[in-house]
Amino acid sequence: MSENQAARTYESTVILSPTLDDAGIEQHVEMVKSWIVASEGEVVRADVWGRRRLAYRIDGHREGVYTFFVFNGTVTVVTELARRYEIEEGVIRYLTVRADQPIDETTEIGLKDYMDSDDRRRGGRGGFPRRDRGPRPPRDDRRDDHRD
Questions:
Q1: Is the pLDDT of residue 82 over 90?
Q2: Cβ distance 44 to 109 under 8 Å?
Q3: 2-38 residue pLDDT tens
Q4: Out of 59-63, 86-90, 95-99, 131-135, which region has the weakest mean confidence (pLDDT)?
Q5: How many other C-beta atoms lie within 10 A of the C-beta of residue 57?
Q6: I need a surface site. Which of 56, 95, 111, 125 has the fewest CB within 10 A?
């Protein structure tokens, strides 16, 4: 790693196309690991969270295969990963963020940590409080200027 850049821990969540079979998914995981190592990063862990239904269609897909990577590296690793995610056909969405706390092989992490199932059922936003907009006016009081 470069002497003037500090190594940090990053988390990268990647949603792969649901058309991939198990061998294709493993191939993508190994490919991302090799990208990190080639950019002078260190892979801490790589998990496949499995197929999940998406909240909205992405490139015509209703579901995707979630994969999760934790790695140590510099900003150069992150920018190289983003460049490669953009050109890789099997990747339909990705997000890489700096980790808040140290993560190792034994740390329990999963999709449930990012959004509680109770929040999903209630239509919540993953632990963020809803804003109260107040009561809506009766239907008759709304403006109908757009109708002739």
A1: yes
A2: no
A3: 456 778 899 999 999 999 999 999 999 999 999 999 9
A4: 131-135
A5: 9
A6: 56
- 102's tokens: 């140290």
> Which residues on neighbouring strands pair with residue 11, listed in sequence order?
70, 97
For the chain, the domains span 8-100
Strand partners, 70: 11, 45
Domain 8-100 top-level CATH class:
alpha beta
Dihedral pair phi/psi, residue 37, rounded to 5°: -65, -40
Determine contact, residues 7/1, Cβ cutoff 8 Å: yes
Task: Report which of 19, 72, 24 is spatially closest to residue 44, judged by C-alpha positions.
Answer: 72
Q: Decide if 143 contacts 81 (C-beta within 8 A).
A: no
For residue 139, what are its two tokens? Answer: 């239907």
Angle, to 10 degrees, between the axis of helix 22-38 and the axis of helix 75-87? 140
